[in-house]
């Protein structure tokens, strides 16, 4: 799977040049087999170091390597995937607060979606929304 489209890469690079801004996440990566969700808001000029909200057991703001995500090998030859339906919708500070309160990015997304704070285009990657 292509982890970043050209449009996403351009937007992340642009955000990376705008310091001290509460950006809306551009892309969501996830581990389809377990823990691991990353909401990226920025990409450094080197094209590798991303910034955003990462959750590999506890959600926290920070930086990570896109190349390291790209080379993670999971069962059945799979790797980290990009959520094709993710739209961001809120600044990273809102995501961070919701994820800390809920305990994870996935739980925060479910709560935000069910509360009506997220539009219908964004769905959790592990569970379909319930009526």
Secondary structure: elements and pairs:
Blueprint: H1 6-16, E1 27-30, E2 37-43, E3 49-55, E4 59-65, H2 66-70, E5 81-82, H3 92-102, H4 105-114
Antiparallel strand pairs: 1-2, 1-5, 2-3, 3-4
Helix pairs in contact: 3-4
Rg result: 14 Å
Share of helix among residues? 25-40%
- Quickly count the helices: 4
Shape: globular
SSE series: HEEEEHEHH
How many domain regions? 1
Biggest sheet features = 5 strands, antiparallel
The overall average pLDDT, rounded, is 89
- Decide which structural class fits the backbone: alpha+beta
Low-confidence stretches: 120-131
N- to C-terminal distance: 31 Å
Give the tally of β-strands: 5
Relative strand content: 15-25%
Strand order in the largest sheet: 4-3-2-1-5
3D architecture notes:
With 131 residues, this protein is an alpha+beta fold. The protein has one domain. It has 4 helices and 5 strands; from the N terminus they run αββββαβαα. The protein has helices at 6-16, 66-70, 92-102, 105-114; strands spanning 27-30, 37-43, 49-55, 59-65, 81-82. Strands 4-3-2-1-5 form a 5-stranded antiparallel sheet. A hairpin with a 3-residue loop joins strand 3 (49-55) and strand 4 (59-65). The radius of gyration is 14 Å and the shape is globular. It starts with 5 loop residues before the first helix and ends in a 17-residue tail after the last helix. This is Single-stranded DNA endonuclease. It holds the Pfam family DUF2958. InterPro entries: DUF2958.
